[in-house]
Automatic annotation (TrEMBL):
Keyword Glycosyltransferase: no
Residues covered by the SKI/SNO/DAC domain: 68-165
Family designation: Belongs to the DACH/dachshund family.
Pfam entry (one): Ski_Sno_DHD
Subcellular location: Nucleus
SUPFAM superfamilies: Putative DNA-binding domain
CDD domains hit by this protein: DHD_Dac (cd21081)
Record's keyword annotation contains Nucleus: yes
UniProt protein name: SKI/SNO/DAC domain-containing protein
Length: 167
């Protein structure tokens, strides 16, 4: 019995119904060129239209004039600038930011801080959506964060003392 060899398909023949052969000379997908870049003018116009004020160096920024709780200022705490809001005559600071700056290396995690707050009878204030947007824009909290709490300076000092004495 005779054995026949399989058919040979060349790269230029149109076998298997593929027009132009098995291999294409041009890529199937075109790679885009350099992605568009934001120019300084584009960035400045965005910042000017979304924030009324400067966030750097102790500046003040506010998102809307309708609520007095959206005025944010950078205040000095232990030599570091921290975001704060003035609410009902009290200065409230961003708890996740001060955790990241001062407490992270002292305690296991943010959950531990909330447990300490309960034990110390400290009640944080929940941020509004607008306040969270401002804090994200300032870099006080991570971009994906959609909730945040605020505490007074006095409460922070109590918490900080408790964390440092616990070690």
């Amino acid at each position: 019995m005779a054995v026949s060899a399989p058919p040979v398909i060349s790269a230029t023949s149109s076998g298997a119904g593929v027009p132009g052969g098995l291999f294409r000379a041009e890529p199937m997908y075109s790679t885009p060129g350099e992605p568009p870049r934001l120019t300084p003018n584009m960035i400045n116009s965005f910042v000017a239209s979304n924030h009324s004020g400067s966030a750097g160096g102790g500046g003040v920024c506010s998102a809307s004039a309708g609520s007095g709780n959206t005025e944010c200022r950078m205040v000095d705490m232990h030599g570091v600038k921290v975001a704060s809001f003035l609410m009902d005559g009290q200065e409230l600071i961003c708890l996740p930011q001060v955790f990241d700056l001062f407490l992270k290396h002292l305690v296991g995690g943010l959950h531990t801080v909330y447990t300490k707050l309960k034990r110390l009878d400290i009640s944080p204030v929940v941020c509004t959506v607008e306040q969270v947007r401002i804090l994200r824009g300032l870099g006080a909290i991570q971009p994906g964060v959609n909730r945040c709490k605020l505490i007074t300076r006095k409460d922070f000092e109590t918490l900080f003392t408790d964390c440092t004495n616990a070690r």
